[in-house]
Amino acid sequence: MIEFIFVSQLAQAYFVNYAIRYLVVIQAFYLPHFHQQFNFLYICFMKVAVVILNWNGEKFLEKFLPSVLSFNSAESQLIVADNASTDDSVSFLQTNYPAIKIIQNTTNGGFAKGYNDALKQIKADYYVLLNSDVEVTPNWIEPIIKLMYSDKTIAACQPKILDFNNKTHFEYAGAAGGFIDKYGYPFCRGRIFETLEEDKGQYNTTSEIFWATGACLFIRAEYFQQMQGFDEDFFAHMEEIDLCWRLKNNGYKIMYCGDSIVYHVGGGTLKKSNPYKTFLNFRNNLILLYKNLPSDNFYSKLFIRFVLDGIAGLKFLLSGEFDNFMAVLKAHGSFYSSLNKTVKKRRQLKKGIKKHATAGIYKHSIIVDYFLRNKKTFKEIDL
To answer: How many whole angstroms from its chain centre is CA 170?
Structure first.
């Protein structure tokens, strides 16, 4: 009986898909100009793969997959890449969503390796990397694909990211598009450190940004593979900033599209208070800077960053957060122990750089502005 239902679902999807394609072709011919007809058809028939990387996220799949399925584009394929989960995620999918393609990675290589391994097996024009703890909304795919199609120099794009638990406010991981300051500290339109702005439409316009969040990342498959994907040494956290920086140094744009909205829970895999998250953030930020900073004032910026990390570690210690204090020390130890490898990466990257990206890098210190000058929102800083 189950097999019959599954075959029926596939057959129905097959005929519905071709019916939609037929209607799309008919609709295209009502457009007045040939180039409009061609563009309309091209966008409709591009292959988009929505890929959810899962690790022990059965509860999130159960909660959020229905919205992804309900609002998935007719021409988009939904795939779940499982990172060697030890819960019942795979069996849950096989039982409840037998039509969804599952890619089972043999090990948990984190966000970076997990996606790299999965995306090598997927043929598409665009990848949409979607966290399992994201609720999507109607028409969340089409505006971004249309934007990216309009300009081939756009390599990646993100939607507006709002907080699932406080839907009137921006969410920490991405908000309305990411930037960094000259010492590598990331921040967003709509979120600077722990200050989350209310969404009042102030960031509805499409604009260029420095980095797009990995929570919901649209990226051209061609460029993702050209950059050899994420740096797997990051494991998780800031690998999308590294990828976006590399893309920008190769002449591509990273964009934000306010016409697309999703809601993100955040902290689904690692809570903010987890010392391992502290370790990854501090270590990966140092790797990020060493790989991608331009040569001008390279060592002075790194030195100042080391000092600021020391101050952060001391603050953890004085606040009684000994585990986070140790995480900062371990992060620096890990960075120094792998420095030879990072130096080789920097040398290799310099060969392909067309021009060091400067747009989107804040020329001042966001630390000073936020904590000493009390500038808490994006509009208060002079980017």
So the answer is: 15
Number of domains in the chain: 1
CA distances from 103 to 38, 94, 107, 119, 212 (A): 34, 12, 12, 10, 24
Alpha helices in 151-274 (DSSP H): 221-226, 239-249
Cα angle, residue 114 at apex, residues 353 and 187 outer, rounded to 5°: 55
The Cα angle at residue 361 between residues 171 and 213, in degrees rounded to 5? 30
Please choose, from the candidates 194, 280, 198, 201, the residue with its C-alpha nearest in 3D space to the C-alpha of residue 241: 280
CA distance 132 to 81: 10
Averaged over 246-260, what is the pLDDT? Answer: 97
* pLDDT at site 43: 56
The Cα 278–Cα 233 span in angstroms is: 16
Is residue 13 included in any domain, yes or no?
A: no
Q: Following CA atoms 128, 130, 135, 140 in sequence, which dihedral angle do they give, to the nearest 10 degrees? A: -10
Q: Is 301 a residue whose pLDDT tops 80?
A: yes
pLDDT of 163: 98
Mean pLDDT of the chain: 90
pLDDT of residue 338: 97
Neighbours of 73 (CB within 10 A): 17
Report if residue 58 sits inside a domain: yes
Question: Is there a domain that residue 260 lies in?
Answer: yes
Q: Is residue 14 part of a domain?
A: no
Q: Residue 11 above 50 pLDDT?
A: no
User: Taking 70 as the threshold, does the pLDDT of residue 285 lie above it?
Assistant: yes
Cα(62)–Cα(177) distance, rounded to whole angstroms?
28
SS3 content of the chain, % helix, strand, coil (to 5): 45, 20, 35
**What pLDDT, on a 0 to 100 scale, did the predictor assign at position 44?**
59
Q: 161 lies in which domain range? A: 46-383
CATH code for the domain in which residue 146 is found: 3.90.550.10
Largest Cα separation within the chain, whole Å, is 69
Distance CA(82)–CA(108), nearest Å, equals 9
Q: Rounded CA gap, 340 and 104, in Å?
A: 33
Has residue 153 got a pLDDT over 80?
yes
Residue 339 has pLDDT above 90, yes or no: yes
